Amino acid sequence: MSVVEAVVDGAIGRIMLNRPEAMNAITVALGEQLETALRTLAPQVRVIVLRGAGGNFSVGGDFHELQQLREQGRDAMSELFGNFSRACSAIAELDVPVIAAVEGYAMAGGFELMQSADIALVHAKAKLADTHSNHGMVPGGGSTQRLPRLVGRQRALAHILTGDRLSADQAVAWGLAYRALPADTFDADVDAFAEALAAKDPVALGRSKQLVYAGLRLPLADGLSLEHRTVLDHLSEDSGGTGIDEFTNKDQQRSTP
Fold it and tell me: Which letter, b or e, does each residue of 140-178 get, where b requires 16 or more Cβ atoms within 10 Å of its Cβ?
C-alpha cells in the first residue's frame, strides 16, 4: 500500500504523507517511499510541496512499528532511521525548492522533516516540537545536527532537552519557518507561494539553492569563491543572458517616449 502519494500538478510537484489514521507517523515504508517520491518528482517539476494528509504534517516515528523492530534487533531498527534520514537528506540534493506546508502536529520526526525542507510555511495553529525527550528517546532524524545549525546551540539544546512546544510565530522568529500563514487562507497562501517560485527561472533557483547548501559546509572564503565561479558560469549561459535581455528590453521600453 502506498503511504506517500506523489503527483505532478503543472510545474508543481505535490507529495502527501498518506497515513492520516496514524497522523502520518513515520514507518520503514514511508521513509523509503518519501525518498523515491522526492527524487522522481524533482526532474519533472520546478517546485515540490510536501504535506501531510488529514490535517497533520507528521507526529514522528510510529511507535507500534518501532516496538516490533526492536524485537527483531538493531539492524531492523536501522532500516527505519536510515530510510527516513536518506529522505530528509535528499531534499538538499535536489535542484528544485522543496516547501514543507506544515499544519496540525509536526512532532519529533515530523519536526525533523520540517527542518530538512528548504522552506517551511507553517499554519498559524500548528503544534511544533521535538518531543523525543518526553518519551525517553534520542532524536534519530537529524534534530541534534540540523537544529543547532538553524537556531543556534542554546535554543536547539534547550528545545531538544525540554521538548517544549513552539508556536508558529516562534518557529518564524527562530528561523525554523519562513512564514506563519493564517488558518483561513492556509491552502491558498501555500499554493500562491509555490506558484510564484515555479514562475522563476529554474536554473537560477537550483544554482542559488546549491550554493547555500555548499556554503554551509565550507569556510567563508571557499564559499565566496564557489559563488564567484557559479555566477560567471550562469552569466555565460543562456539562462543568465535571457534574464538580462528581458530586463534591459523592458527598461528601454519604459524610457522610450
Answer: bbbbbebbbeebeeebbeebbeebeebebebbbebebbb
Distance CA 235, CA 237 (A): 5
Instruction: Give the tens place of pLDDT for each residue, 95-138.
Output: 999 999 999 999 999 999 999 999 999 999 999 999 999 999 99
**Residue pLDDT, tens place only, 153-210:** 999 999 999 999 999 999 999 999 999 999 999 999 999 999 999 999 999 999 999 9
How are beta strands 47-52 and 105-107 bridged, if at all?
unpaired
According to DSSP, the residues that pair with 5 across neighbouring strands are 16
Distances (CA, A) of 77 to 29, 64, 186: 13, 12, 36
Q: What is the pTM of this model?
A: 0.93
Residue 56 vs residues 103, 133, 241: alpha-carbon distances, Å? 5, 21, 43
Alpha-helix runs per DSSP H in the chain: 28-41, 63-72, 74-93, 109-116, 143-151, 153-162, 168-174, 186-198, 202-217, 220-235, 238-255
Q: Which residue has the cell 556554503?
A: 215
The SS3 call for residue 47 is strand
